[in-house]
Design goal:
- The structure is a single chain.
- This protein is α/β, with parallel strands linked by helices.
- The chain has helices at about 5-15, 55-75, 95-100, 100-110, 125-130, and strands at about 15-20, 20-25, 25-35, 40-50, 85-90, 115-120.
- Strands 1, 2, 3, 4, 5 and 6 form a 6-stranded mixed sheet that branches.
Length: about 140
């Protein structure tokens, strides 16, 4: 499983602000904001969910419940275009990532109800986050 502290460190290096670590169904997660530095405006929100292989399998069974109990609460509080820039990042160790079924992963990533979903292996985090970039 990708470590929460490692993920927070990567996001901090990229200028993102992260919140406190929360727990849902024994799975730790946290929200992070991507900031436009000139105005300090949040233009994307990320929900980061580090998972072991066992937790990944459990998450697949509980995805709809997770959306209802965690994602929707934030989605409906947003009163701007920010609701179009919500990302769920499931982060797994490289070893665990290689063991997941790619068709199942693609199916999860294709479901963009409320939030865009991305599944990454730990070694990709630094290169792939944040997803949205500005060149201003």
């Amino acid at each position: 499983m990708a470590g929460i502290d490692t993920i927070k460190e990567i996001l901090s290096e990229k200028g993102m602000r992260h919140g406190e670590t929360l727990v849902w169904q024994n799975m730790k997660y946290f929200w992070a904001d991507q900031i436009y530095s000139k105005t300090e405006t949040v233009f994307a929100k990320y929900l980061l969910l580090p998972l072991s292989l066992a937790q990944w399998k459990e998450f697949l069974l509980l995805d709809e419940q997770f959306s209802t109990e965690v994602v929707e609460k934030t989605y409906y509080l947003l009163h701007s275009d920010l609701c179009w820039n919500l990302y769920l990042v499931c982060a797994l160790s490289d070893e665990d990532f290689e063991q997941i079924d790619r068709h199942t992963r693609f199916e999860l990533e294709r479901n963009t109800n409320y939030i865009r979903k991305i599944v990454l292996k730990e070694s990709e985090l630094r290169a792939r986050l944040p997803v949205g970039n500005t060149r201003f």
